[in-house]
Amino acid sequence: MTDRATGAAGTAGDTTGAVTGGDAADAGADADAGTEAVSCRGLDYSFGDTKAVCDLDLSVRAGEVFGLLGPNGAGKTTAIRCITTLLPVPAGMVRVFGHDAAREKMAVRRLLGYVPQQLSADAQLTGRENVTLFARVFDVPRRERAERVAQALEAVDLTGAADRMAKTYSGGMVRRLELAQALVSAPRLLMLDEPTIGLDPIARTSVWEHINAVRRATGMTVLVTTHYMDEAEQYCDRVGLMNRGRIHALGTPDELRADLRERRRGAPGEPGAGGATGGPAERDDAMPTLEDVFREVAGRGLDEEGGDFRDVRNTRRTASRVG
To answer: Is 69 in contact with 225 (CB distance < 8 Å)?
Structure first.
């Protein structure tokens, strides 16, 4: 595990150990060592004539934070929904800790915590009631339910606001509440679809501090989609850049940035290169950002291929309700 994934955990890490239900988390983490948390092989999914995911190969290692990046319409959310069994896939295409998402749906679901892009908290319930509802949905044993709910709320620093109506929460508090909902079942794999959308920088940092604190205490795997390149660069161990249903670049943020720099050095005429452009030679060694890598992978078709009116409407509605 790199400092990138754990360095921002802060003081909240001391409050999260009990979320997993004791020593079971350590045993689970040891058992996961060297295994694949998620494996997609030749994954395809279409909506009518529109192919959202095309022959996708993806491997997420147990214990890592993996960022799935790409423009709107790239297929990220569809891939997430296939992995979480919310969309049907043929047998053998998707496995979660070795379980086939087509043949063993319930086994897969018991391993997951999921924070969707759309708002999932109920404004008319208290924070505690929201998390309790998810504890019931995820079949947390009745005798453990109250304690696990309290632990999840403590893990995201919402104990003091637990009995307030969720409609009184700030945007950052709502996102942390949804994180508590996902954590109450002590998942081995946490799926986060745009977890900080619409939040201000302070609230975004707070959400990530709590994610990393729980990870540090439990060893769980995190698969996240985000449009914030600074988040991906700071918190993800590896990232996959997706466009038009496929992964086009894969590696650590540093590896992808260094690879782009090397390709720019060998391609006169690229921005920042010397030679044909007449730019100063010292600019050849300028390190690109992860956003530069994103832009290269997304290409010039980003505006034309980047989703439809529904994508824009849903994103704006979510941002407005959360933030």
So the answer is: yes
Domain ranges of the chain: 3-251
**Tens digit of pLDDT for each residue in 106-140?**
999 999 999 998 888 999 999 999 999 999 988 89
Q: Which residues sit opposite 113 in a β-bridge?
A: 190
- Say if residue 316's pLDDT is above 80: no
Confidence of residue 266 (pLDDT cuts 50, 70, 90): confident
Average predicted confidence (pLDDT) for the chain: 82
Tokens of 6: 């754990």
SS (H, E, C) 128-196: HHHHHHHHHHCCCCHHHHHHHHHHHHHHCCCHHHCCCEHHHCCHHHHHHHHHHHHHCCCCCEEEEECCC
- Say what the alpha-carbon torsion angle 242, 248, 243, 102 is, to the nearest 10 degrees: -60
CA atoms in the 13 A half-sphere facing the CB of 187: 29
| Dist CA 34 CA 299 (whole Å) | 35
SS3 126: strand
pLDDT band at 170 (very low <50, low <70, confident <90, very high): very high
Q: What is the pTM of this model?
A: 0.78
Q: What's the CATH architecture for 3-251?
A: 3-Layer(aba) Sandwich (3.40)
Q: Which two tokens stand for residue 313?
A: 């409407």
The amino acid at 116: P
